[in-house]
Amino acid sequence: MIRRATEYVCAHGHDLITANHETTFEFTKDDFLTNRGDCIIAVGAKGTKEFSEDFKRLASIDSAIITVKMEVDGINEIAVGQGNRELKFNHPTDMVARKSSYICPRTLMIRSNKSASDLDREFIKRLKNSKSIIHIVIVVEA
């Protein structure tokens, strides 16, 4: 039996978004961004600490599949990765999808099939506008 939990996140773009990072992409609750944040693709989101206990429990199963569906101005992107028993989901401001299997408190998923640099450039162009709203649906299945 497949079990599923879903998190819904609404965030917005920022003028300094570059999305050039080759191994991660990140959403942050912070509303500010510096030039160094080349993995950040949206601000004003939420941290993994705010996720439901059901989501956290399912995503902490090694065989869990995590799908991040993103939409801004009618342009869609989807990234798929894995859960892991070491994921903590306790960061107050950040969630990071990683191509690698590195885990820290900010990690949302590992072995992602996409990083910031893999995302459609028109999608990223829209996120360079601080008035753009990005709708994010994160689904875990285990």
Overview of the structural elements:
The structure is a single chain. The chain is mainly beta. It has a single domain (4-141), classed as Jelly Rolls, CATH 2.60.120. The chain has helices spanning 53-59, 121-127; strands at residues 4-12, 24-28, 40-42, 65-72, 75-82, 94-98, 107-109, 133-141. The strands form two sheets. Strands 1-8-4-5 form a four-stranded antiparallel sheet. A four-stranded mixed sheet has the order 3-2-6-7, with no helix packed on it. A hairpin with a 2-residue loop joins strand 4 (65-72) and strand 5. The radius of gyration is 14 Å and the shape is globular.
Q: What would the keywords be for this entry?
A:
Jelly Rolls; mainly beta; about 140 residues; 2 helices
In a nutshell, what does this entry contain?
With 142 residues, this protein is mainly beta. Helix content is 10%, strand content 35%.
Mean pLDDT: 95
Question: Which H/E pattern describes the elements?
Answer: EEEHEEEEHE
CATH superfamily annotation? mth639 domain like
- How much of the sequence lies in strands comes to 35-45%
Give the SSE layout.
Layout: E1 4-12, E2 24-28, E3 40-42, H1 53-59, E4 65-72, E5 75-82, E6 94-98, E7 107-109, H2 121-127, E8 133-141
